[in-house]
Amino acid sequence: MEDYEVLFSAYEAYKQRGKKLDMSRGKPSPKQLDTMERLLTAVTHSSECFTEKGTDCRNYGALDGINECKRLFGTMLGVDWNNVIVGGNSSLNFMYDTVARAMLHGVVDGCKPWSKYEQISFLCPVPGYDRHFAICEFFGINMINIPMDEHGPDMDMIEKLVAEDDTIKGIWCVPKYSNPGGVTYSDEVVRRFAKLKPKAKDFRVFWDNAYVLHDLTDKPDKLLEIFGEAEKYGNEDMFFEFASTSKITYPGSGVAAIASSAKNIARLMKELSVQTIGHDKLNQLRHSRIFKTYDDIVEQMKKHMEIIRPKFKAVYTVLEDELTGCGISWTIPNGGYFICVTMPDGTAKRTVELCKEAGLIITNAGATHPYGNNPRDNIIRLAPTFPEVGELEEAAKLFCICAKLAVIEKSIQ
Amino acid sequence: MEDYEVLFSAYEAYKQRGKKLDMSRGKPSPKQLDTMERLLTAVTHSSECFTEKGTDCRNYGALDGINECKRLFGTMLGVDWNNVIVGGNSSLNFMYDTVARAMLHGVVDGCKPWSKYEQISFLCPVPGYDRHFAICEFFGINMINIPMDEHGPDMDMIEKLVAEDDTIKGIWCVPKYSNPGGVTYSDEVVRRFAKLKPKAKDFRVFWDNAYVLHDLTDKPDKLLEIFGEAEKYGNEDMFFEFASTSKITYPGSGVAAIASSAKNIARLMKELSVQTIGHDKLNQLRHSRIFKTYDDIVEQMKKHMEIIRPKFKAVYTVLEDELTGCGISWTIPNGGYFICVTMPDGTAKRTVELCKEAGLIITNAGATHPYGNNPRDNIIRLAPTFPEVGELEEAAKLFCICAKLAVIEKSIQ
Q1: Are residues A256 and A353 in the same domain?
Q2: Which of A131, A271, A275 to mutate to test the interface with B (most CBs of B within 10 A)?
């Protein structure tokens, strides 16, 4: 590693340039969105607004979504499309709603609403997604950290906790290309989830399959389909799976879906009927018209990969050049939206702070953990999809300088 | 009135024809939807997806909606557009969410969540909208009937109840062209709402302005704007106003909004940020591009009126011809989507039942009241917008026969 003085003067040079850089946002770039222009003209005439069943998508109705779009998600997720509800533009909103309903109504007959407990808990594999944790925090649900390794969350710990404590009611999972670690759960991890024996009958797994098709290589990870496994143990009611086209078509105007057991979906339909008359079917129809077959989606995902992959590579190159031998490691995921950097303990926050002072925005170091608190202060999430390559290289270089400065500062404390 | 035998044989003739008729659905007809075809092509190129501020509507963000669309609702409702949040396609969903959040988080600092009370109540002006009542029922909120007259709900009763009982937390109002009575609240009623002094600090008025622009005559009703009045008494935090373009553009793919005080909106933004990253901005943009000025909306509403008015008139003609002098009355509203028929007590359910047996679907007679229970069993809601005129005339004739049969049956009991 360079001397502190050398690094510091390089840092000061960046700072004085005053350029604004941003690697905080896990959002697609305009170029990616441009590949979807045909979505805007997928339905342009009144006569085209009807589903294969003849439903007028302009009018009220079809609470569970249109069949064409339900099948699309069925294929994407490898589940029975009859057990899919297609909704609005936000899978996060589906997750929030699912927790909110569980708080006020419970999730299964004969179990009281979660809000009637003095305290309930969710298991939170870490590092994880801050918006999952925010939902728990909003509803006053206690969060318990579960460590992750390259195979997924610590299943020994999960099995033990859920078997012992019936106030543990849920767990957040991003089973493929996890946010931010990029981990895809191994077949063994998925199988152990499928046969979990929680003490609480109303324990639920929130299986957020946000990156189901979001590969970054030609040899993508494969995730075992959860409902097929769970059914072997009669455990299919334990899972709510979520997905969306936010990072396939448009983040703001995609389509989200929830999949679950037939029993859960029937219950959900009753509950949803109080909430809305139906979601935006025209947008569902647009998606079905663009993606007539599974291959059409695969084709689209290749376009995303072609745009994103060079960005990840640009960052890797800088990280390799600048951080090799510094006690800092990073993920090279086969998909997803993030690079996850592991720093020496106690240096992540300081790194992000140094970045910020020099004009580079990075996601807050604690955001990967419940309550914004990573006890080891060692994880940083980099999001390379939005900026262009040149900007990314600059940002990555500045990040490396800040990381090394933070490491040196820590070592001389 | 004709003899029972004459009526009954006419009824049997209808029955044997076996034709299916439907006056149950308050939804626009295909012809109305066809007038909005330009919405489908309002945004067709990637370069057109940006707001006046430069926000890319395809991507994440803009939790409160795009400014263009916020202003649109500000103008429609006569409120400050800064105090508007534009959301997805369903104002019902906004209402549900608002009650759900109140249940779990309360509506104001220092007051406990509504779910922490043994029992809370909502006031429900009747006849009213069954989907409002369904939300209360879903959350276990007790409902208290408030009679309506041609000026609005019984304000003496409301003032007395809310002053005495701090477990009364809300009231459902459709202040213009009420569903189903077609009543627009008088200025005096609006002013008495504006200066209500509820015992509960967390009492809230759910002001569902669903028919704000939905006139059926050239001399439409005028509703006093509620926030302007409420501010005179420092009462603006007491109101949540809801509206949508569901019956202006497309019921399935419209845009919904909530308006409230600056304080409530700020609180709501914090809460919403946990729920979603943002609603469908592209659809908001489509609406803003179609409706550049208030006049553009007025123009559109005229098209709806031209299509709907003859349908209402067709029903009135039959009702006048068939029911005059039978002790049955009906509304002739200046706007909205319904004709509300008042029958002799104890004959509404039987009328709907007779209709159903002969193939005519009418909204269940109790649906206008909480718990589906109208103690007087005297109100029937007719929805004439969806069927074509010929079909409506047939349906109205059959309805009249059933109504008279029910009245005779009752009289000879």
Answers
A1: no
A2: A275
Question: How many Å from the N-terminal Cα to the C-terminal Cα in chain B?
Answer: 17
State how many domains chain B has.
2
Compute how many other C-beta atoms are within 10 angstroms of the C-beta atom of residue B303.
14
Question: Residue B153 in 3-state DSSP?
Answer: strand
Q: What are phi and psi of A411, to 5 degrees?
A: -70, -25
Tell me whether 0.85 is exceeded by the ipTM. Answer: yes
Shared domain for A111 and A85, answered yes or no, is yes
Over the stretch B31-57, which tens digit does the pLDDT of each residue have?
A: 999 999 999 999 999 999 999 999 999
Q: Please answer yes or no on whether B138 and A274 come within 8 Å at the CB atom.
A: yes
Q: Which chain B residues contact residue A40 at CB under 8 A?
A: 43-46, 48-49, 282
Closest CA–CA distance from residue B136 to any residue of chain A (Å): 9
Could you give the CA distance from residue B384 to residue B391 in angstroms, rounded to a whole number? 10
Distance from CA of A101 to the nearest CA of B (A): 8
Give me the domain span that covers residue B58: 40-293
Residue for token digits 């179990």?
Answer: A111
Band of the pLDDT at B2, cuts 50, 70, 90?
Answer: confident
- Is the pLDDT at B316 greater than 90? The verdict is yes
Q: What is the mean pLDDT of residues B355-369?
A: 96
**Mean pLDDT of all residues in A199-207:** 98
pLDDT of A2 over the 90 cut: no
Q: How confident is the model at residue B1 (pLDDT cuts 50, 70, 90)?
A: confident
Residue B31 within a domain = no
Which of the four pLDDT bands, split at 50, 70 and 90, describes residue B375? Answer: very high
Q: B49 and A40: CB-CB below 8 Å?
A: yes
For A372: left if phi > 0, alpha if psi spans -120 to 50, otherwise beta; the answer is left
Rounded to the nearest angstrom, the gap between the alpha carbon of residue A396 and the centroid of all alpha carbons in its chain is 23
State whether residue A61 is helix, strand or coil.
coil
**Residue of chain A whose Cα is closest to the Cα of B91:** A276
B174 and B257 in a common domain: yes
Strand partners, B379: B342
Q: pLDDT tens for residues A299-318?
A: 999 999 999 999 999 999 99
Cα angle, residue B93 at apex, residues B373 and B231 outer, rounded to 5°: 90
Instruction: Tell me, yes or no, whether A149 and A109 share the same domain.
Output: yes
Test A277 with B250 for CB contact under 8 angstroms.
no
Residues of A in contact with B36 (CB under 8 A): 58
pLDDT of residue A54 exceeding 90: yes
Pick from A41, A90, A100: CB nearest B276: A90
User: Do residues B268 and B324 both lie within one domain?
Assistant: no
- The confidence band for A324, taking pLDDT boundaries of 50, 70 and 90, is very high
DSSP character at residue B370:
G
Residue from B366, B350, B368 nearest B358 by CA: B350
CA–CA dist A41, A44 (Å, integer): 6
Strand partners, B146: B125
CA distance B89 to chain A (A): 6
Q: How far is CA B187 from the centre of its chain?
A: 19
Q: pLDDT tens digit string along A40-50?
A: 999 999 999 99
Inter-CA distances, B154 with B82, B181, B186, B205, Å = 32, 14, 12, 15
Instruction: Choose one of B275, B293, B311: the last residue of a domain.
Output: B293
Query: Is A31 part of any domain?
Result: no
Cβ partners under 8 Å of residue B291, min gap 6? B72, B297, B300
Residue B223 has pLDDT above 90, yes or no: yes
Is residue A200 within 8 Å of residue A169, measured between CB atoms? yes
Do A274 and B58 lie within an 8 Å CB cutoff? no
Q: How far apart are CA B54 and CA B90, in angstroms?
A: 26
Structural tokens at position B275:
């729920």
List the one residue out of B261, B183, B258 whose CA is nearest residue B221.
Answer: B183
